[in-house]
Design the sequence.
């Protein structure tokens, strides 16, 4: 029972991370029907944004109040990346055949990874370490450090932080979507962009907002990832992005609650598979395989996802 | 949306029309003559360009560009005027002169950096620059003429075949010349030359005409292209360095053409295609005579090849089966997930985390060279006194393979199956309503593409003499896709060009290999933005991306009508 509870906690932690990133995929897809393949890179840049803020302002400190500032730095970096990306690469392609934006997205993804790898240590006015190796992520008092035990289950402090982030973000997101004017506008655009435009909604602006919203959550996930793994590198975006996309599809792409649920389910399944798949195919070596296999199975048997009711075949 | 440099208004152009032509002619002539002069005091750079009346390398290039300029000018007014009724000389001259200006500027920059300062530039270089500038300015004022319909332009049949043969010979010569340049500057200048030349020819409509000619003499063109490819190893004097690059290009191109069936013809985006090449390679390795091979059975290579291809196509069927319910972006993600599963599985099957099949991260090294009959691919053979080394042997077998793949591709493309694929690509529901077996054809596309990649993979295993999981990253699939997109989806020539560019550039431009991926990403974005149909676009495809272009639509219509006639 203890092992089960332990794996459940591990899974929920992992799943919270996936869920935070998955929201970005789902929000953008819900509005422009575009798989923003470069979203994983936005997450990676969030982590680097937080790191840069720390290195520039607080080098050597560990107090808790630094964390919000780091998060703000991360959000600024991610949102700026996402907004520029939308403006420069995606907007000109609106209305083009569907293959075009997807290939563009792959291009951006490769470009951003390489950009960080090659130029992170060359930003003028700073002396950041080279991103060609892993970079240690700062330790923050209260959210990193020794784990505590509750009822036979070991819980990392950073895990609590991640789960806490998800709960808070989900609440804020719910409020934003359902209670603000901008949120209503987003819902309208996702239901019917043409009618929304006729009702006086600036659709272009809403699309930018969707990108920015996803980026902000990805940035928070980036900070959480850094705190959990204690280091970051330029490659973290690819796998995390792919997993988060899996989560978004699992929950039903275009559906925000679905993304959260899908993320948590995926995390838990991965953790349980690591523990309970018997024989040589168990263990952490195969967990990614199980996650991707789950994606394929869900797409084949329930393409609308666990919660989604959207029509999949939009192509 | 088209982005162009600011152009002159028609009034200004009409006012100065009389001055433009002589300027352009004079500029081209100056460029032509400049090749005979000395370009630099320094005789150690760019292959000694200091001797008068002894043009080499860049000087010959300048002369060729100048000659083309003169020819264009004489087509506008002068003895070649009749040709000007078909070729858009004004546009050609403008594009050519822009390319020439860049080329000459690059030459001067090369002299300045290599020899230390612009003082080392001799009269030839400056005259070339003046010529390029005159061409550039003059061509802006040359007015465009009313043109005839290109598809009705005819010259005698033997002359058309001669044009094809000459073009192919030029391609062979240029390829051999470029590959033999170890000097990065000469390589870059060679590229600039080719770009200037093809810009001029493309804008003047020469390539359109060439396309019509190629259409009329398809078999001649194919034969000529293969003859050129076959002759290529004989231009290398037994050096294996370039042949190694050439074999890599061929493997890459063979795989990309297989992918082109899936993406270009059937319109199914596959982001895990490298897994099929990988399964072929792994089968080839596991059944080879390597000490690390994990399967005891050692069948003859042709059997291994077939098994590799069949295994790959079984994977293709598996990955294709979700297409029954999933399409579009979702399918792309399924294939991506499949590619990752393949790589992870190859990484894990090392005996600890699964059955011992692949030796995990270490892969299977020490795969011996191919041996078919008494012919060992590792040996050097002498043909007509020219030594052909290990990579040349692989080059020839790959050439055979690629010929086979191209044959399959074109036959499929022109068959009922190919038309079914195009119908599915354009509108799946409509195709189904018309009685096209959508699911079966999709599966066939996946299995067929995978089969071809599997064939290539088995050869690749022997040529690389090792397989390991890190050769089959997602990035490699993205590269394959980029080759298809860059060259032009659904075309053979395009994919060959795309594959060559993507494999050759990083090999030849070592200084650029650090930035290879960065530029690759940028290239994909820019390509989708400005020329989504690829370098060599099939007309239909081009129309899909530019549906507001009325004249293009008419041209496509004419083209198809001609087909019917």
Sequence:
């Amino acid at each position: 029972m203890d092992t089960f509870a332990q794996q459940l906690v591990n899974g929920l932690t992992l799943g919270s991370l996936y869920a935070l990133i998955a929201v970005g995929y789902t929000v953008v897809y819900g509005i422009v029907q575009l798989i923003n393949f470069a979203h994983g890179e936005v997450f990676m840049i969030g982590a680097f944004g937080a790191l840069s803020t720390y290195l520039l302002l607080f080098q050597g400190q560990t107090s808790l109040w630094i964390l919000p500032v780091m998060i703000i730095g991360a959000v600024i970096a991610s949102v700026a990346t996402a907004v520029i990306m939308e403006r420069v690469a995606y907007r000109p392609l609106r209305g083009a055949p569907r293959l075009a934006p997807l290939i563009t997205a792959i291009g951006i993804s490769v470009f951003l990874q390489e950009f960080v790898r090659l130029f992170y240590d060359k930003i003028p006015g700073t002396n950041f370490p080279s991103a060609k190796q892993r970079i240690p992520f700062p330790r923050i008092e209260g959210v990193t450090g020794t784990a505590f035990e509750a009822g036979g289950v070991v819980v990392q402090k950073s895990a609590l932080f991640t789960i806490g982030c998800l709960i808070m973000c989900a609440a804020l997101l719910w409020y934003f979507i359902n209670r603000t004017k901008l949120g209503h506008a987003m819902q309208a655009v996702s239901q019917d962009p043409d009618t929304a435009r006729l009702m006086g909604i600036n659709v272009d602006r809403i699309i930018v907002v969707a990108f920015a919203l996803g980026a902000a959550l990805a940035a928070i996930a980036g900070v959480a990832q850094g705190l959990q793994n204690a280091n970051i590198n330029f490659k973290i975006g690819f796998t995390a992005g792919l997993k988060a996309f899996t989560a978004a599809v699992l929950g039903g792409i275009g559906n925000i609650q679905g993304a959260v649920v899908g993320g948590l389910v995926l995390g838990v399944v991965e953790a349980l598979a690591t523990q309970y798949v018997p024989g040589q195919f168990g263990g952490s070596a195969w967990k990614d395989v199980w996650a991707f296999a789950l994606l394929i199975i869900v797409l084949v048997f329930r393409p609308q996802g666990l919660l989604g009711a959207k029509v999949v075949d939009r192509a | 949306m088209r982005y162009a440099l600011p152009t002159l208004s028609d009034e200004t152009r009409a006012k100065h029309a009389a001055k433009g032509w002589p300027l352009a002619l004079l500029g081209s002539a100056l460029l032509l003559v400049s090749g005979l002069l000395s370009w630099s005091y320094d005789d150690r750079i760019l292959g000694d360009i200091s001797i008068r009346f002894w043009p080499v390398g860049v000087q010959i290039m300048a002369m060729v560009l100048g000659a083309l300029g003169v020819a264009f000018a004489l087509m506008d007014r002068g003895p070649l005027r009749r040709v000007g009724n078909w070729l858009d000389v004004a546009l050609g001259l403008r594009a050519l002169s822009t390319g020439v200006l860049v080329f000459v500027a690059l030459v001067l920059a090369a002299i300045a950096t290599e020899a230390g300062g612009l003082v080392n530039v001799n009269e030839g270089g400056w005259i070339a620059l003046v010529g390029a500038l005159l061409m550039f300015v003059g061509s802006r004022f040359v007015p465009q003429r009313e043109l005839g319909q290109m598809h009705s332009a005819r010259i005698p049949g033997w002359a058309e075949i001669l044009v094809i043969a000459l073009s192919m010979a030029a391609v062979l010569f240029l390829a051999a010349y470029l590959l033999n340049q170890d000097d990065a500057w000469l390589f870059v200048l060679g590229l600039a030359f080719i770009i200037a030349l093809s810009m001029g020819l493309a804008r003047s409509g020469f390539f359109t005409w060439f396309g019509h000619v190629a259409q009329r003499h398809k078999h001649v063109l194919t034969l000529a292209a293969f003859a050129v490819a076959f002759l290529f190893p004989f231009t290398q004097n037994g050096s294996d360095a370039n042949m190694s690059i050439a074999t890599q290009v061929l493997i890459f191109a063979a795989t990309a053409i297989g992918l082109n069936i899936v993406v270009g013809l059937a319109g199914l985006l596959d982001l895990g295609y490298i897994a099929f090449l990988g399964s072929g390679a792994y089968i080839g390795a596991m059944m080879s005579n390597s000490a690390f091979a994990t399967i005891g059975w050692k069948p003859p290579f042709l059997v291994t090849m077939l098994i590799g291809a069949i295994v790959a196509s079984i994977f293709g069927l598996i990955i294709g089966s979700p297409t029954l319910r999933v399409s579009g972006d979702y399918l792309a993600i399924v294939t991506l997930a499949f590619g990752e599963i393949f790589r992870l599985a190859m990484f894990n099957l090392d005996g600890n985390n699964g059955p011992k099949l692949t030796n995990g991260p270490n892969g299977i090294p020490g795969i011996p060279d191919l041996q078919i009959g008494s012919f060992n691919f590792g040996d050097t053979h002498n043909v007509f006194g020219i030594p052909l080394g290990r990579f040349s042997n692989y080059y020839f077998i790959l050439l055979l393979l690629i010929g086979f793949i191209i044959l399959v591709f074109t036959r499929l493309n022109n068959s009922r199956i190919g038309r079914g694929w195009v119908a599915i690509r354009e509108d799946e529901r409509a195709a189904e309503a018309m009685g096209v077996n959508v699911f079966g054809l999709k599966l066939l596309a996946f299995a067929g593409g995978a089969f071809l990649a599997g064939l290539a993979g088995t050869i690749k295993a022997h040529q690389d003499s090792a397989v390991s999981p890190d050769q089959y990253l997602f990035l490699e699939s993205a590269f394959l896709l980029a080759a298809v997109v860059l060259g032009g989806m659904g075309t053979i020539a395009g994919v060959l060009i795309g594959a060559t560019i993507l494999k050759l550039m990083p090999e030849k431009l070592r200084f650029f290999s650090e930035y290879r991926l960065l530029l690759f990403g940028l290239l994909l974005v820019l390509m989708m933005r400005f020329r989504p149909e690829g370098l060599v676009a099939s007309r239909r495809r081009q129309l899909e991306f530019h549906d507001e272009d009325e004249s293009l639509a008419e041209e496509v219509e004419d083209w198809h009508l001609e087909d019917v006639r």
In short: The longest strand of chain A covers residues 148-150. The longest helix of chain A spans residues 2-32. Residues 15-126+137-237 of chain A form one domain.
